[in-house]
């Protein structure tokens, strides 16, 4: 029979024997009396038992230990310090306390034992049965009664002439000590203390009276003995206490000595020591102290010796020896407010001076704070939501406190302590519940034993600890940050709201784990991390209360925790209601920005390795030389990838990001920031870079993520915005990315890029040539403008080509300047032509010159007057007249006068008869005439003697000379002297002349005496003498004939004969002098005026000079201007511009058009030379240009699609294959392992750290918030290539630092004109003492301050009407935003709605009527089917008004059931105030200004947030939220705001905004700078179109981008029907100009036409006609409605129906051949045709009426078997035979018997063709118009929602193909 094996757990195997004292008092706790337990193991194996000691009464502290007990052996375990001071200190009775000792093995009890201890009341001794040594613990020398006794004893000693000082044994002998003992004895005896009953020393008894013996005068012998012993010890003597059944005695060593043991029972040795002769001890009997005994000290000594011999004393307790053995005096118990109070020995004496007040270190922060400390401070959450400022004790473990420093030291020393709950949960206050000393001692005792006691019960404490442990573990796994702390001490403070709150003071990072045995929790701290002061509280105290204790914010390891609490207590002592409490909590502390704060606090060393972080810390950035990438027009499309459309400003940012540069990207509202960011990310990923995109708002991350998804790379972008990210979801996304199938890179990518560059260059070349600066410093475009500007100037300048050849920019500028100067000066002189200064060639004016000229003019006038007077006398005396008087005549008169005065002609006239002289003079005159004629034909005069009479007769009678002999003979003579042969016909004339000659000779010689001077004696004339004689006379008459008008020689001769008397001499001499003076004056005049003598007037010279001098005198004030003109004219001559002055002086040009004429000629010549010589300009035509633009647009759209595919293919190609090798293989395996375990025991942070390379290819882009960056990413500098911040103006530098540090380069995107970081989590406090290290408002501002490169996004796309952004653009962006004008730009979409309301300023802070008016408008719009399509947002200027409107609106929406219209939509209605509207946008924004006149009519200038610093930013944000319309509800107008009373920029902005809303853009200031200066070519096009009858505006728009010409719709004067774009100079790229601008304008409902400047210059009429043709089409003036249908339509050819079959015909299978043949016939005839309609047509042609699923399936199979050409569009298959069938062009129409009855029967190609053809005539149509139009083209097709949906899909297809552009209002136009 088998023996039964005894189990280890059988109780028979183990026994326990408790060895506890019978009694226990406070002294046992105080002296740590040990207890022991013996454990026996009767089993055959050694076991480890769990021993526990428990006492339900609370006498013992629960005790647990493990003991290894050998087999069949016993072990004695000793436990020290397990008595509870709490029960023993408060116990007032003998109390039986049961004790249980338990032994457990593997959790099962194997042995138990019970014991009982009697708890003694406080100050009781267990008696002679107990430990006599304990008596020393009740001896308390520091009692005040002892001091009183010693004082009296001192007096007695003085009376005994002994020293009254008690210095113990120093300087004393035995007698002295004995006398001291006697004095003490006498002093106590003198007190007359009565005996309080008998004492039984064999049983427990009280040995120390609770009260004062001296006051009560009552004591037992035990109490009195202990008191006297204390008095001796107080006198620094060594007392000995004797006790026994016979009573008690007190002794003292008479010299400094003690027993070898603390207690001795050797009465014999004591007897020797007290005996005479030895006298080492002196004892007296306590009984002698009582009044009943009269014994003095010496007799009492004898009484003691007697009792000693009789054996009355059993034990002698040497107090000094006990002290040496560690028996200290117990505290004294007294009553306090909260029960009993214990005073330790050192607290009961005033002998020692109080301890000095600790010299605390300076608490105020001194010196400059480093930047990282400032960042930490900025990240602190200073709101009451933060538990670090408002700790309520919930979800935390409240620990018993017995001294913070002791606890921290124990935690460090022990490495961990068990967390225990209270056996009986105490109901205590969360804070400030100070424990009694005895309870603190109990707590401290437990803590020393490794027990951390909580106030909560064990279960609650355990649950809380479990939650804290889990939370701390999760935080550490996910973020690397610890959130669990031990909080030592709390500051109770009253906030500004009056609410009392608690904030932890000292924080020590803690950890919770499972203790041994897994039953309890273990709490530990790290000695390396130490403890710190709550920096959040320090900053809060400084900012809110100006209490600066930030000096505690650093390393406080040298300070004790109690010292820190004391310091804070001292600094806050003056604050009413404030207190520092010493509570200790184990709690999790975190706040919104805790992770970022901890990231900087813990990792600044690593983070500062980043260059930008280092620059921010040192306020100095090293500029890295990054080569500027080329602009868009010079860039490589293959190098800078643009998967999304972008403008040139966006391209610049994308290109710079690719160069690896860090820069600031300014992104004003609506400028396409997210689109730009997406392109930047796509480029970086394509280049193999890792990108970190950071935004504070999830909405910003979502927008970019959606765009990344849209371009096909979303799988490679991991979004982690929330700290509660689902790990499983992240793993799933990464697995999906890894599973992406490999794809081939797109083909032809590089080739398409090259094509794109070629087309771009083809478009860029003409533009570049047009605007390239040329020889004259101007472009062809500028020359065209200048030519058009001056086209109406006179075209009469004759400029030589050499002048053009020599013309340079500098010379042209000089010419222009000189011409302007000349024209201006000439104008000031009254003009050049007929100027009084004509021929006054003076260039340098001076006052002297003026005086000289004035005098010369005056002299000239006087001399002319004098000369005219003598000339009149001259003429009168000689009976002559003179006509125009010239200088020559005046000189001739002078010569004539001189000869007359000299008597030169007296030989003729002196003494001669007038009649005789008359005959003489006239005969000679006749003779000279005849001789002159004669000698023209003959050499000499034929002499006639006898022939003369006959000749005379012949001549008188006449006849034929040939018949007359005489005449014939004379003719022969004449023939001989003739100079040439004589014509017979001339002989009669010659004969007559010869006759007259001789007749005249006869008269000359026959009738005067004067002929004697030249005749011989025979009376013949000597012609030579005659000539000499008559020379002077002939000269006289020649002179006279030259000067006199209607000269009569005979009359003159008569006056000369009479003048021989000399009466005319005075006149002649006077004339000569006057003429001489005149010529001198003239010479002086001409010399002073520097006149050109060749330009002097010959006729009427005296009148000329007279009028000239008079005019100069009258206009002498204009002389300076004339001098300037002449100087300019001289310079013009030097420049070769004589033709200018000539034109001015000739009158061909006026002063106001001379420059225009010059420029017109110059620029026309410039254009005629440059345009033909430049290939890019000379071959530019309208057709080729538009064709190239269209090719470029289509190719760009196609290339964008290829770009998306190209980037995606590259990213997929980098993904590792499952069988890859290298580091990626290792990380892939790690990821697989982590994924399969679902990250069990690990977090995302750990996973990212383990697989960094794999993450770089699977998720190279991470989209995160600043918090999740700190949470999930390791603090490693430069782990990303690029970090991009969005809305950086709302992100503080402190928040951004962690993200910046993790990337090599940073792109900071934001708008400094919008809201700075919100003050929601911290006040906008500035540390005045650390200003140089203070951050600016945002990371954007700080980066700008560092001088980071900048890029600006300038194109604004959000606002569908330009007026919506015009105010912000003008007021805050200096008109730098390029905005698109609207066709209805003449009207503003910002409207002011005045409300007759009142602002309740003093009470509700709201404007009810304004709120009601706004709500009414919102309800109206929500109720309207059309208006409700536009999303709405409400913005208020105050939170009170927001709340009021929200309440009213909610009530109305509910009442009218408008919930769906308001909220169930993509963009629900919102109501927000200025503070939180940034980032939101809606179609319609409704403002409630709220502020305005109060009930008294007064307008306060306090407009809430607008008055604050940066309030203008709030306004800027608010007024830039609308897309379509903005309504401003206000009770005040702009004039009500008086800016003289405020300097707030925000208030000034509000005033300007109200004025703008009321009056429109006329209130906006003109732009400070513009890309385009002056009007462009549009001005001249507008003039031409105006002449054609169209009303036009040029330069339409309020920003730098303008529509050159806007043609007003004749039918609607508030809209433009056409916009004309020209090719003016601007900074826009080829793509901007040719695609973006045109497409965007069309989306804004514009009709657009482009005009080229060169074409307009070459043939303006043709270009104007082209525009007019478009206008005629738009207005319907050129053709009949519907003419386009006949042009583009063709009839539908349908296959005829044959047969009448049933469904089985199809499903049977026998007729497949016939069916397939019919299918081919239908496709060939009716191509293209959809699958569904093809099946319908087939059934119809076979006459099959019913169909079904089988028929459909069979037909699908047969159709697929036919192998038709197929095109799949919009999820529909279209079959065709000829590829031309699916081209967009013609469409098919049907008659009344139409077979196409629904939208499904039509093809997308035909619908798109119809729309395209219609738009070709109508230019633009709305969707409802298109529906009506298609109903006309396809009348049989049913119109309904299905058809409208099909039509919208067709339009979308047309947009995709680049055929159409859809505007924001659903207006369709051709692309």
What does this structure look like?
44% of the residues lie in helices and 15% in strands. The protein contains 65 helices and 51 strands. The longest helix has 32 residues. It is elongated, with a radius of gyration of 63 Å.
Explain briefly what this protein structure is.
It contains 65 helices and 51 strands. It is of the alpha/beta class and 1871 residues long.
Offer a few descriptive terms.
1871 residues; alpha/beta; 51 strands; disordered N terminus
List the helices and strands and how they pair.
Blueprint: E1 14-19, E2 23-24, H1 26-30, E3 35-41, E4 47-54, E5 63-69, E6 73-79, H2 85-90, E7 95-105, E8 108-119, E9 124-125, H3 144-159, H4 174-189, E10 194-195, E11 205-206, H5 213-216, E12 218-219, H6 221-234, E13 239-244, E14 247-253, E15 263-264, H7 267-274, E16 281-285, H8 297-309, E17 315-318, H9 319-324, E18 332-336, E19 339-343, H10 371-379, E20 397-399, H11 404-414, E21 417-422, H12 437-448, E22 451-457, H13 458-479, E23 484-494, E24 500-514, E25 521-525, E26 532-533, H14 535-545, H15 561-571, E27 579-588, H16 594-607, H17 611-618, H18 648-658, E28 663-666, H19 673-686, E29 691-694, H20 698-710, E30 717-720, H21 727-738, H22 749-771, H23 780-789, H24 801-806, H25 809-828, H26 847-877, H27 887-902, H28 906-909, H29 914-934, H30 947-957, H31 965-977, H32 987-1007, H33 1023-1043, H34 1049-1059, H35 1065-1089, H36 1101-1114, H37 1119-1134, H38 1138-1146, H39 1154-1173, H40 1175-1178, H41 1182-1213, H42 1223-1236, H43 1244-1250, H44 1252-1258, E31 1261-1264, H45 1266-1272, E32 1280-1285, H46 1293-1301, E33 1303-1310, H47 1339-1345, ...
Parallel strand pairs: 2-8, 10-12, 21-22, 28-33, 28-34, 29-31, 29-32, 30-31, 32-33, 35-39, 36-37, 36-38, 38-39, 42-43, 44-48
Antiparallel strand pairs: 1-3, 3-6, 4-5, 4-7, 7-8, 9-11, 13-14, 13-17, 14-16, 15-17, 18-19, 20-27, 21-25, 23-24, 23-27, 24-25, 24-26, 40-41, 41-42, 45-47, 46-47, 49-51, 50-51
